[in-house]
Write a structure and sequence with these properties.
binds flavin-adenine dinucleotide, FAD/NAD(P)-binding domain, single chain, Polyamine Oxidase, Chain A, domain 2
Length: about 350
Amino acid sequence: MATAKTSQSSREHDVVVVGAGIAGLMASSHLSKAGYRVSVLEKARGVGGRMATRRIGEAVCDHGAQYFSVKGKSFGRVVSEAQDSLAVMPWCDLFPHSKTAEGPIVELLDEMGHARWRGTHGMTSLPKYLAKQLPEPVQTEVRVRSLGVQDNAVHLSCENNQTVVARAAVLTAPVPQAVEIFQAGGLWPPAVDSEVWGVLSSVEYSPCFSLMLWLAKPSLLPDPGGLEVSSGPVAWIADNYKKGISPAPSLTVQATAEFSREHFDTEPSQVEDKLIEAVNSWIDGKALDEVQATSLQRWKYAFPVSPLKAPMIAVQNKPPVVCCGDAFGGGRVESAASSGLAAARWVQRLLG
Ligand SMILES: Cc1cc2nc3c(=O)[nH]c(=O)nc-3n(C[C@H](O)[C@H](O)[C@H](O)COP(=O)(O)OP(=O)(O)OC[C@H]3O[C@@H](n4cnc5c(N)ncnc54)[C@H](O)[C@@H]3O)c2cc1C
């Protein structure tokens, strides 16, 4: 993967992109291809953000986004190229549905189907593929602390004491985190239009627990290995083995927003017990014997509660600073990708 760690200051960039999730990578890819020098800063150890894949023992689990859809042409072209490079592949057209996590399963009508895509080795395959195409490696483990404006340039300061100066900035961190970065850099009303600030400050996300289980035997979940659930503590169950990304049997169990909110500060082992109990009927044998290892991911900013209709929001024009990501358009992988692209095109127009 094209990533690098650095603590040097850099002054030669046209655009700095904060976050290497799908929105940030789509924006960086568009701007790099348009000839701009782009610096991508990512606080995590790897790229992908909420398109996340993890290994537990011998199992591989997607623990953020589970699949993505492709409706727009621009994202479609990117996905098609990624498919040619074997980074992504179709998973299925439809998932069965169940009222409760225990079942029974209700098969949906074929007419309701459309292609659901997955990464070849897990959902991070697409972000990794995009990062690899960039002329400059993504700087990982670099957390941006503040963004301010000085002499018609954006100045970002990072927790590793690195300072990045650029002609424009694209912020893709979940909006409350982007707002904190602006505040720390002195960007809030009156520097920023108070209406824009009001909109950004109102964006909220729901949390989500994602429990990963490495199992001794394959689960009893039917093909294609994904089940949507409409009531109780669980919203989604996936079999990563049937999905084709895990060499060993494993499940990913996603809790509902209500359950995740209610238990956000509960002892993790208690949350695990409740979720394992809810999906017990899909484990072939006693959970105590079958579960080899567990890992619980607690997403604080999982899904925007009411995504904004605008594809991006310009925080200011001179120098250009823009917020984008899945809060703009729809709260899904494709909306985040489209939002990143919209932000990149806006920056391109302003920089000329
Ligand atoms: C559990 C779960 C299940 C989901 N299931 C699906 C699904 O099945 N299908 C679907 O389409 N969507 C799904 N989604 C939503 C989808 O994952 C997101 O909409 C999409 O990945 C968001 O992309 P993004 O680039 O906007 O944000 P992110 O992926 O969150 O990227 C933002 C990046 O910014 C980085 N960052 C934040 N702050 C800083 C900082 N200060 N300095 C540097 N970097 C920073 C973060 O580390 C992160 O990498 C799911 C999400 C979750 C959490």
